């Protein structure tokens, strides 16, 4: 076996990791789906659990030597149940897309109709966008937000009555408002549809008691674990006991092979963190920080999609300022602020060069940023957008960003 440390054995990879650590330490991470995990989570990810095969579920494995793996996986399940009030949890999905696919195949037949949100209105690729394989297998019908940028429940009901979907799907990657799960469940019941929520973006806000929780209401809820929830890359599926067998069989052996138990241990740790009182405060501050940005961008005269935010993210049309989302993203990168270009509802531009930028507060809030820092960040984003062609100005902002990040060290243990 190679007993050399990484820096000794492979200085090239070691350098890339070091550079990425430095990028994270010295920039402002505002992609709303990103966050910074704790060192305890990092430790579990890099543990010997990665060596073990464990197809099956706790107590029912196809391999020997799973006694400690079983402990870890059961802990992750029990903590997730407690965190969300779930009847049943599968912690094995490798990420959000496989989790959603496993649910579709568990509960539906090829050709069945699913009513889900249009991607440009804040939905998600895995909710049946035509470029995905799932769109070839299931019949996805897409609802949109109304002129005020809200989900129009009357329209949703009318579409449900017309198309008679087998499943109604909510949960979004750019939609920034609260979701009325009871009302959507009532529409689903009227047409005999199953209800599925993909809470990947807002799981941490739900766990922290800051947003409505669909888990007690909906049949099945999926989430990634690495966004607001602040755990490792991966996903979980929560469901009612009555469909637990179908869900478990669909994840394994239906769709996946051996679970990644190092990730599952890291999920268990993230759930323990999320069960602590400090996490509630973290979730509250994420929303407060997003509201600071909402006010700033309104004051600066930007057009906020969906009329603003009830969660951690903002989708902003930057074209009235004379640039595209892509140009804004590039300018902000030069200023040390990472966001992502994003389509706005019915965007006349293309996905690679859309009209909007999407930004969020989970990672900066993990870093310790509060209202005062968010005020500065809002000012800098506006300055960068208004001076997007002026590299000197962008470099000046980057220096200010650097000075601020020094006051909020991220991983002193890794330096
Ligand atoms: N890629 C994630 C996001 O950024 O929203 C969703 O899968």
UniProtKB/TrEMBL annotation:
Its cofactor is pyridoxal 5'-phosphate. CDD domains: SHMT. (6S)-5,6,7,8-tetrahydrofolate binds at residues 119, 123-125, 241. Residues 6-381 form the Serine hydroxymethyltransferase-like domain. The record marks 226 as: Plays an important role in substrate specificity. Keywords: Amino-acid biosynthesis, Cytoplasm, Methyltransferase, One-carbon metabolism, Pyridoxal phosphate, Transferase. GO terms for molecular function: glycine hydroxymethyltransferase activity; methyltransferase activity; pyridoxal phosphate binding. It catalyses: (6R)-5,10-methylene-5,6,7,8-tetrahydrofolate + glycine + H2O = (6S)-5,6,7,8-tetrahydrofolate + L-serine. Its EC number is 2.1.2.1. Pfam families: SHMT. It is an enzyme of class 2 (transferase). Gene3D superfamilies: Aspartate Aminotransferase, domain 1, Type I PLP-dependent aspartate aminotransferase-like (Major domain). Pathway: One-carbon metabolism; tetrahydrofolate interconversion; Amino-acid biosynthesis; glycine biosynthesis; glycine from L-serine: step 1/1. The modification N6-(pyridoxal phosphate)lysine is found at residue 227. Catalyzes the reversible interconversion of serine and glycine with tetrahydrofolate (THF) serving as the one-carbon carrier. This reaction serves as the major source of one-carbon groups required for the biosynthesis of purines, thymidylate, methionine, and other important biomolecules. Also exhibits THF-independent aldolase activity toward beta-hydroxyamino acids, producing glycine and aldehydes, via a retro-aldol mechanism. Homodimer. Belongs to the SHMT family. This is Serine hydroxymethyltransferase.
